[in-house]
Design goal:
Helices cover 37% and strands 20% of the residues. With 354 residues, it is an alpha/beta fold. The chain has a domain at 29-133 and 169-285: Ribonuclease Z/Hydroxyacylglutathione hydrolase-like (Metallo-beta-lactamase, Chain A), CATH 3.60.15.10. A hairpin with a 2-residue loop joins strand 8 (184-187) and strand 9 (190-197). Helix 7 runs antiparallel to helix 8 and helix 9 (301-308) crosses helix 10. The longest helix is centred in the C-terminal third of the chain and has 25 residues, at 272-296. The chain is globular, with a radius of gyration of 21 Å. The structure holds zinc ion (ZN). Zinc ion (ZN) binds at residues 49, 98, 100-101, 219, 264-265. Residues 49, 98, 100-101, 219, 264-265 line the site of zinc ion.
Length: 354
């Protein structure tokens, strides 16, 4: 274990990344006394997830568990035989129900006999993901994509992706302990405020320690990429982008500009408010592209995907997220009165700028 760079106070507003080099495999970096950072590999273009360990009495609280596959189990085993030898995990906090975060919760809880701590909605959503893949749900997703003009072969790919991706979890622990927005929890001598937010997940948990100005932002505010904000068939009219932007607005008004942000992916950074502004602007820019494209003639979501996502070709995994994200922008703009929906006799939704 080694400290790679000192944490220095930020100048207001400037984005800075004090640890440009992330921990490699079987490496652990100490960010602050009793705050450790390591990474687990993901089999996607986004190829890693951050895990944090916080000193907690005679043990450690782990934040997120990694993807539920054999590779991650092998990587954890090497860490617990190596740099984390004799580390006792006494509590696992999982920020949200996505498989790169909750995936190995069952394995960690089983190994350390520690409690799993989550928000109620994210625990139940994790249980829902484990149960998905029924024919009824696949059919609902197929009809949802059809209404948005996606062709059948793409839909098949997307459904294949959803099955693969969301099932990559070890068995979810049968019980959990709930944390909710506004709770205060102690981890070691630090006090953390629990903040939850929608958009990327339904009720994602973030933790803020005011005394140390440490903000564990999960996937809500990432350092260099924009978190996926999607709509799926289970709630076709969901305004996830509206929820996400509301959460960002709340974070920017309640947290200080000079907090050290520890995100779920990427590297720790300073400049929270600047990053939040960039993320909000990024979504507004996409809304602008959609508004322009829908001014002349009504468009389907499928027709708008290439308008917004230029980086082709997308693989099936990315295409799934791109479609879900595009529809999130549509629903937000419908909510804001910037688009109207038209349904013609073919049953496909088309959108026109107001
Ligand atoms: Zn993630």
């Amino acid at each position: 274990m080694h400290v790679k760079a000192p944490a220095i106070q930020s100048l207001a507003g400037i984005l800075r990344y004090p640890w440009e080099t992330p921990p490699g495999p079987n490496e652990v970096v100490e960010l602050r006394p009793g705050v450790l950072w390591l990474r687990q590999v993901l089999p996607f273009q986004l190829n890693h997830v951050n895990i944090y360990l916080l000193t907690d009495g005679d043990g450690w609280t782990m934040i997120d568990s990694g993807f539920g596959n054999e590779e991650t189990i092998a990587a954890w085993t090497a860490l617990f035989d190596g740099p984390l030898k004799n580390f006792n995990i006494t509590r696992l906090i999982v920020t949200h129900s996505h498989p790169d975060h909750v995936g190995l919760a069952g394995w960690i809880v089983e190994r350390f006999k520690c409690p799993l701590v989550m928000s109620q909605v994210e625990y139940l959503q994790s249980a829902y993901h484990q149960m998905r893949g029924t024919d009824e749900r696949k059919e609902a997703q197929r009809l949802f994509f059809r209404r948005h003009g996606m062709d059948e072969s793409l839909t098949d790919k997307l459904l294949g992706r959803g099955q693969d991706y969301l099932k990559r979890v070890s068995t979810l622990p049968a019980s959990y302990r709930r944390i909710s927005h506004g709770d205060e929890i102690s981890i070691g001598t630090r006090r953390f405020k629990v903040i939850t937010g929608g958009g990327h997940a339904l009720d994602q948990v973030m933790l803020y320690c005011a005394a140390d100005k440490l903000f564990l932002s999960a996937d809500q505010v990432l350092s260099k990429i924009s978190p996926n904000v999607s709509v799926w068939a289970v709630e076709p009219d969901q305004n996830s982008l509206g929820e996400y932007l509301a959460s960002l607005a709340s974070l920017t008004t309640t947290l200080p500009y000079d907090a050290l942000v520890l995100p779920g992916h990427g590297v720790p950074f300073y400049g929270l408010k600047t990053r939040i502004k960039q993320l909000a602007d990024h979504h507004e820019e996409r809304c602008g592209m959609i508004a322009t494209a829908c001014r002349e003639a009504p468009k389907t979501s499928a027709e708008l995907v290439p308008v917004v996502f230029h980086k082709y070709p997308l693989d099936a995994h990315q295409t799934g997220f791109a479609a879900g994200e595009l529809i999130a922008h549509i629903n937000y703009m419908l909510n804001e009165g910037r688009l109207v929906a038209q349904q013609q006799s073919d049953g496909i939704l088309r959108f026109l700028s107001t």
